[in-house]
Amino acid sequence: MQKIINVLAVASFAVSGAVVVSGVYVYVNRDSIIDGVKSQVMDAVTSQLGGLAGLAGGDAGLPVGGGALVPEVGSGIPSGPFGGASGSASALPF
């Protein structure tokens, strides 16, 4: 019975030591770990966005701004947040 308890004590010491060593490693190298994660996230985001203009520096076939992109007055798009004219007192819900 004593041998089993000694084996469990040694195993517990080994696990505790491994936790402490890994914690010290992460604490000492936290800046490089954070920089690595940031670069991986940025690579993933830029690959998901593809070649959008501005990020990739080129034209990705996006429409060029002009009159067709600006809605005309009276096109059914509400001008205020509640459907009324901006700044009108009747458009407020209370």
Give a verbal description of the structure.
The chain has a domain at 1-50. Helix content is 50%, strand content 0%. The protein contains two helices and no strands.
What separation lies between the terminal Cα atoms? 77 Å
Strand content: under 5%
Structural class: mainly alpha
In percent, how helical is the residue content?
A: 40-55%
User: What Rg, in angstroms, do the CA atoms define?
Assistant: 30 Å
Shape: elongated
Averaged pLDDT: 77
E-strand count: 0
User: What ranges have pLDDT less than 50 throughout 5 or more consecutive residues?
Assistant: none
Summarize this, please?
This protein has a domain at 1-50.
Looking at this protein, list some descriptive labels.
94 residues; mainly alpha; 2 helices
Blueprint (SSEs and pairs):
Layout lengths: L1 H27 L1 H20 L45
